[in-house]
């Protein structure tokens, strides 16, 4: 774990209230991480009190274990302190950061046949970073991956076209977008209307074959966890990352 300054190199809006930020380390060093890990951004409240917030790394790397650009997706929260900082950053501005942290990662020791990857909102970013590893594991271990991704509406489906393209390219990977409020204007074959639990139930979770990863909204994580346990998965087969504020 290291402390470093990050300089904003590029950014764009992924959805009306979600910003993709691509940083480079100010010292020019590459950033080493394992897909699934997160960084912390350190800053001060107006009264001078130090604080920090966590953000999953979403960069699709080349498999070398280090990247030049550290990409995150920030979902704006009304009145949020980090939201104010990260929504106002301009290219060239810097922030203090540390990392990488976390163990929400694919593990070498696993020998399961299928992974169920479940996310809502920006909780899909760790899976984006895992794509090169997913490609490798489907080829070397012959396991499959089903990404179940919940968004309220089509415009809030982050990186949707990237996941669709990856699913067309990698036979062992399927993408299951779930729209909880408004269905897609032109629905696609894997679309589901409703919460992620709808698609998850259709995939028939099975303790003999599956390991599940759950990331994003804490309520979704808790509900999916309960459902998977009910289906017979043991706690070590269900890995969780809850996006709670770390104030
Ligand atoms: C391991 C980990 C990884 C994370 N990764 C990401 C990520 O990749 N992208 C991302 O956008 N966030 C991520 N988060 C959440 C992030 O760290 C912040 O909590 C979030 O950005 C809000 O911070 P803020 O300072 O803007 O709001 P705060 O000042 O912390 O909160 C302002 C108000 O909004 C409420 N609030 C906080 N979060 C939410 C929310 N999600 N929805 C509704 N109300 C909320 C608070 O209770 C408070 O009332 C992650 C959290 C963890 C623990």
Structure description:
The protein is α/β, with parallel strands linked by helices. It has 2 domains: 100 residues, Translation factors (Elongation Factor Tu (Ef-tu), domain 3), CATH 2.40.30; 129 residues, Rossmann fold (3-Layer(aba) Sandwich). It has 5 helices and 14 strands. A 6-stranded antiparallel β-sheet has the order 5-4-8-1-2-7, covered by helices on one side. A 6-stranded parallel β-sheet has the order 12-11-10-9-13-14, with helices on both faces.
List keywords for this structure.
six-stranded antiparallel beta sheet; Rossmann fold; globular; Elongation Factor Tu (Ef-tu), domain 3; 247 residues; alpha/beta; binds flavin-adenine dinucleotide; six-stranded parallel beta sheet; 37% strand; 2 domains
């Amino acid at each position: 774990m290291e402390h470093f300054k990050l300089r904003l190199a590029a950014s764009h809006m992924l959805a009306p209230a979600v910003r993709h930020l691509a940083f480079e380390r100010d010292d020019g060093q590459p950033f080493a991480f394992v897909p699934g890990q997160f960084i912390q951004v350190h800053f001060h409240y107006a009264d001078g009190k130090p604080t920090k917030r966590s953000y999953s790394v979403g960069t699709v790397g080349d498999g070398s274990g280090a990247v030049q650009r550290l990409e995150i997706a920030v979902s704006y929260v009304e009145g949020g302190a980090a939201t104010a900082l990260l929504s106002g950053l301009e290219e060239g501005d810097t922030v203090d950061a540390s990392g990488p942290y976390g163990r929400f990662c694919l593990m070498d020791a696993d020998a399961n046949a299928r992974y169920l990857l479940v996310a809502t909102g920006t909780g899909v970013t760790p899976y984006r970073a895992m794509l090169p590893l997913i490609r490798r594991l489907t080829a070397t271990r012959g396991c499959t991956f089903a990404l179940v991704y919940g968004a309220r509406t089509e415009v809030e489906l982050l990186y949707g076209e990237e996941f669709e393209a990856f699913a067309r390219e990698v036979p062992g990977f399927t993408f299951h977008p779930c729209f909880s409020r408004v269905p897609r204007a032109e629905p696609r074959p894997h679309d589901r209307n409703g919460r992620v639990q709808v698609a998850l139930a259709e995939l028939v979770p099975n303790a003999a074959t599956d390991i599940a990863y759950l990331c994003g909204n804490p309520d979704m994580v808790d509900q999916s966890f309960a459902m998977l346990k009910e289906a017979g998965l043991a706690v070590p087969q269900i890995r969780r990352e809850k996006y709670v504020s770390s104030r």
